[in-house]
Amino acid sequence: MAIINTNGGFGTSDTVNSTNLNAVADAATFDDPVDETTLELITTGGDSGKLRVKAGGVDTNQIAGSAVTKAKIEDVDNMKVLGNTSGSATAPQEVDVIDSTSGINNNNNDTSIPTSAAVLGLFTLSGSDLTINI
Description:
The chain is about 10% helix and about 20% strand. The protein has helices spanning about 20-25, 115-120; strands at about 5, 30, 40, 50-55, 80-85, 95-100, 115, 125, 130.
């Protein structure tokens, strides 16, 4: 079965020129949309006869490794990083980045990530004395 239907063609005595060839190519449609799972044939409207990706037709199998760039990931709020602090496997979520000692909670349930400046702010070094500022 042909995949492309040209809706025309050339006979043995027809002259092939760019105008005639372009007209045949422009009128071509797809007869077989391949799988009806990832691709579908548009059957109505001005795009009838063209192929399109079906809704939900692209998953990780169709995306090449390392093909998604950082710019294509959703915007991440300021002072957030993507991570997983849930204790089990899950999709990444925004995790707080703390840049001052006042934002650091002194408990085992704090899942924020302090900057090096925030960590250094927890300590005071005076001579040989180190003080922890908690």
